[in-house]
Structures are given as C-alpha cells and as structure tokens.
Amino acid sequence: MNFKQMVSWAEQISAETLKELPLEVRTALDEVPIFFEALPSEKDIDEGIAPDTLGLFDPGPDSAPMACIRLWLENIWDEAEEAGTTFEEEVRITLLHEIGHLLGWDEDEVEDRGLA
Fold first, then answer.
1. Taking the model in full, what pTM does it have?
2. Secondary structure of 45-78 in the HEC alphabet?
C-alpha cells in the first residue's frame, strides 16, 4: 500500500473513531489537527523522537499553544504486521492514545485505560 492510500484509509478510520467519542472530548479536539506523516523526520529524531514512534501529541509552544496530533503511518503499518493486528486497529489505538495525552493523561493513565 502506498502512502497516499494509507493517508486516505487513516483519515476514514480517524473520522469513525472521533464520532464514537463523547461530545466533550470531540469538542476538545476541534482545534487540534491530526497530521498523517510517513515517518519521523530527521529533525524529529534529533529532537528525541524514536524512529519507530507511532504517534505523538504535540501541545505546541507554551507561548502560543498550537497543539496537534501526529501519526506516522508507515510505523503504524509495520506495527500492525509485527503485532498480528490490522492497520485499522493500530491507527485507532494510536489515535486514542494521543487523545489521552491531549486530555492530560500520562503514560500510566493511558495504559490503565487500555490505550497503550
């Protein structure tokens, strides 16, 4: 599957996932774009993001919050193959995991809710 197809499929999965969330969570996401990228860039890796990272909630700079969620689709695709799951399952769980961080949950809280 090429990257353009992955993006199209990930957009559909994300839209379906967001529809299932409570209104207050969807409202919190109104100003938070979701970006679909192939892999972390060299700059990302230089800033400490592991090359195999699946997703990231970026709260933006303190002075002018411009939060976003980033999903790295080639890593998600590889994770699905390695874990014996589907691309759909991995996009969904990664998106929900990053939404958990948006809501202020740390890694333990995200994991306790089954989103790790």
1. 0.89
2. HHCCCCCCCCEEEECCCCCCCCCEEEEEHHHHHH
